[in-house]
Design brief:
Layout lengths: L7 H8 L16 H10 L4 H16 L3 H13 L4 H10 L2 H8 L5 H9 L3 E3 L2 E2 L12 E4 L3 H13 L9 E4 L6 E4 L14 H11 L1
Antiparallel strand pairs: 1-2, 1-3, 3-5, 4-5
Helix pairs in contact: 3-9, 4-5, 5-9, 6-7
Length: 206
């Protein structure tokens, strides 16, 4: 299954807030059809609850189904809670780090900056959105004026969320610099999610 490119509000209405997918607010009032569908849906089955948690994770981080499954397998082989390791792996992706630093308004926006080679990690260009960042990595923009202007526009136009304690940003220089202080603590995860239900979903599929 490929990465989702359809209507974003449709997913938000179904799954709840997905800040990584869009920072816009759905102002459309609930229609009669929405209320009918809610009434018809009745009590959710355990399968549907687990599926929705999995979909929430997938759409927030902008992953294809195969990508998310690969992360679940990696987390399952690591020490510690599979669900917590899974969230740490996703949060330490370069596209998500840019989003959490406020250098991009959404994760798709961060991915575009990376693909277009505007971002440096430790002084070298990285054009792979899934690049796994590590503590003490330094994230900066290229010296090109276009790169600086894009980041400046994102920062000025985006709402300023509280910066997680594992990240630091220094906007006082000519190019914005973000620093990864440590592996993220789970209380700073940018999405309200029950990761254990996601792990259960995949364990029941295999």
């Amino acid at each position: 299954m490929s990465r989702y490119r359809g209507p974003r509000f449709k997913k938000i209405r179904r799954l709840g807030a997905l800040p990584g997918l869009t920072n816009k607010i759905n102002k459309r009032p609930k229609s009669r059809n929405d209320l009918k569908n809610k009434f018809r849906s009745g009590k959710k089955s355990q399968y549907r609850i687990r599926l929705e948690e999995k979909q929430k994770l997938r759409f927030h981080y902008g992953l294809a189904e195969r990508q998310l499954l690969r992360y679940v397998h990696i987390a399952g082989k690591a020490k510690g809670s599979t669900g917590q390791v899974l969230l740490q792996l996703l949060e330490m992706r370069l596209d998500n780090i840019l989003f959490r630093l406020g250098m991009a308004s959404t994760i798709p926006g961060a991915r575009q900056l990376i693909n277009h080679r505007h971002i440096l990690v430790n002084g070298g260009i990285v054009d792979i959105p899934s690049y796994r960042c590590k503590p003490r990595d330094i994230i900066t923009t290229r010296d090109k004026q276009k790169s600086k202007a894009l980041i400046q526009n994102y920062i000025e136009s985006s709402p300023h969320a509280e910066l997680p304690n594992h990240l630091t940003i220094d906007p006082s220089q000519y190019k914005y610099k973000g620093l990864i202080n440590q592996i993220i603590d789970n209380k700073w995860i940018g999405l309200k999610i029950n990761e254990f239900l996601v792990v259960e979903y995949y364990s029941r599929q295999t």
